[in-house]
Write a structure and sequence with these properties.
The protein is of the alpha+beta class. The chain has 21 helices and 14 strands. α7 packs antiparallel against α8.
């Protein structure tokens, strides 16, 4: 469902219809202390409605100005990775300068920021520009111009002694007259002086900052975050083959990345696919390539044809095979994929106007196990997580098979065979050769247990419906349960009881069918109904339950 507005507090409401000027005025009010800095944090999200159908340069202006504002109001922990993302991956001078300035709003300096600032310098070597971060829409000529490189070196000054590890690089920059003008070299000298004269005893231990997030265990979230909820979504691979997503997911752990071929930032989509190819080589080295699916979905399905995806992937080291694909949905269906993974992406005229780095690991059941978003993911770290998933899958495979068999077949059949009425008890006991017993008295204490057993069976079938053969088995089992409990047990009607038993057994069999066989049965029944129905009613699938 598309959200069309964020409400930050009772006074500030920014929607997709808010003008650029209104948004800038709202940020200025936060800078002035009139409103919470949560306004700024929300504006950092690529999914914010204010960016919907907004040209890229406007989105950059809004997001960058919001990010630079953290120097004034303080940088909360929830916004730190957004700032570090721009320093690590950004190629736009305005955004990198804003991130370097916003970093100085952090609660305290830390040595782990050094590598991000050095990476930002490397990114800006040929991409710097002059700008103003003091006004949303400044007039020219600029009153207090700055550059990305200047903001980065001012941040080194803010770090002081925490940046001692960067002294060799900073000293080498002083000798570089080509990349740094005299004004910028003056900021470098100030940074070096402030670092060298800081004689405080500082903890220079470097704590790694990760973009990794593991999914916590939750029964509710497991049902929502399972890719099998989209298994019937039609997707097309790099060869132009269209199939349901289920056929590309399979029963293996999966690495799922996102990209698009028109991405102009080499630190994002190009590097993501390069690293995916290198990861594939690691899996090949340890003979794990057949135990893991590698899938890369495009953000831009309207433009990225199979041929474009194939060339883009092949040129960056992807070896396509039975379980390695680049995929696209239909342009209209992409929102389903975006909603499931909660992708950090927005579009203008069906073209991506901004996005973040995104990689996900799925376990063999299709649950999101680990997500790597915004910051660069390390191949070694992802490879270790994949090995953990593969090992966990092989260890739990036999137990999972037994549980699935019990849930889908054995439990419903055992429930079906349980005596459902006093007459049924007599039939069962006679069958076992117990003479002299023709019936058993009515036993009301059995009703709660019978209801619990039937309810448990219905819950299991319903939870499996999205991942297996739809809701038809559920409705059949529900009808059988009603017949068993109602006229079957309460009124000792053996015909109703046996009818209910039959329906529960049919439900168990249908629910346990392989999906390919289920489709054949579905098509057969649909064709039969088409033959007997009027022409206006043809094409209705009776087995989908939709």
């Amino acid at each position: 469902m598309k959200m069309n507005r964020f409400t930050f507090n009772k006074n500030i409401v920014l929607t997709r219809n808010s003008s650029v000027e209104q948004t800038g005025a709202a940020i200025d009010r936060v800078r002035a202390g009139e409103h919470s800095k949560n306004v700024l944090v929300e504006l950092l999200s690529e999914r914010h409605p204010v960016y919907e159908e907004r040209p890229g340069y406007q989105a950059t202006l809004i997001k960058g100005y919001a990010m630079a504002s953290f120097e004034n109001v303080g940088l909360p922990g929830s916004a730190l990775n957004f700032v570090l993302d721009e320093l690590q991956n950004g190629k736009n001078a305005y955004m990198v300068a804003a991130a370097a300035r916003g970093l100085r709003g952090a609660k305290s300096p830390a040595t782990q920021y050094v590598k991000f600032l050095l990476q930002a310098l490397a990114n800006m070597r040929y991409h710097d520009d002059s700008m103003s971060l003091d006004e949303f829409k400044p007039s020219w000529p600029l009153k207090n111009p700055t550059t990305a490189k200047k903001e980065i070196f001012i941040s080194f000054q803010w770090l002081q002694g925490y940046a001692k590890g960067a002294l060799p690089e900073l000293n080498s920059f002083l000798k570089n007259n080509y990349d740094f003008d005299p004004g910028t070299r003056e900021e470098i000298r100030k940074a070096i002086d402030m670092i060298e004269t800081d004689d405080r005893k500082l903890d220079l231990a470097c704590c790694e900052i990760e973009g990794e997030k593991r999914s916590g265990f939750s029964l509710l979230w497991t049902g929502v975050s399972n890719i099998k909820s989209l298994e019937h979504l039609e997707v097309e691979n790099e060869k132009g083959i269209c199939r349901p997503l289920k056929e590309f997911i399979d029963q293996r752990p999966a690495v799922v990345a996102f990209f698009y071929t028109r991405c102009m930032n080499p630190n994002k989509c190009t590097l993501t696919i390069n690293k995916l190819g290198w990861l594939q080589q690691e899996l090949l080295k340890y003979q794990l390539q057949e135990k893991v699916n590698i899938l890369a979905f495009t953000y831009d399905p309207g433009y990225d044809t199979p041929a474009r995806m194939h060339v883009f992937g092949e040129n960056r080291g992807i070896v396509f095979g039975p379980n390695a694909h680049m995929l696209r949905t239909g342009p209209e269906e992409f929102s389903l994929l975006s909603g499931f993974f909660r992708l950090g992406v927005n579009h203008v005229n069906a073209t991506v106007n901004q996005h973040r780095l995104e990689l996900f690991l799925l376990d063999k059941k299709g649950n999101i196990s680990t997500s790597y978003t915004r910051l660069q993911w390390e191949i070694d770290k992802v490879f270790r997580d994949i090995k953990r998933l593969v090992k966990s899958s092989s260890r739990s495979g036999w137990l999972s098979s037994i549980m699935n068999c019990f849930q889908q077949v054995l439990f419903p059949i055992a429930l079906a065979l349980f005596p459902k009425c006093p007459v049924c008890w007599a039939v069962y006991l006679s069958a076992f050769g117990i003479s002299g017993i023709q019936s058993i008295p009515y036993s009301p204490w059995l009703i709660p247990w019978l209801i619990v057993a039937i309810s448990a069976n219905l819950i299991i079938i319903y939870r499996k419906a999205r991942f297996r053969n739809g809701l038809i088995p559920f409705w059949i089992s529900l009808a059988g349960g009603i017949l068993v409990i109602g006229p079957g047990y309460l009124f000792s009607n053996i015909t109703s009881a046996m009818s209910g038993v039959s329906l529960i057994m049919v439900s168990a069999i249908l629910n346990s069918l392989p999906y390919s066989l289920w489709l054949k049965l579905n098509h057969f029944v649909s064709s039969v109904f088409r033959d007997v129905k009027k022409p206006s009613q043809t094409g209705i699938s009776v087995f989908r339950g939709e």
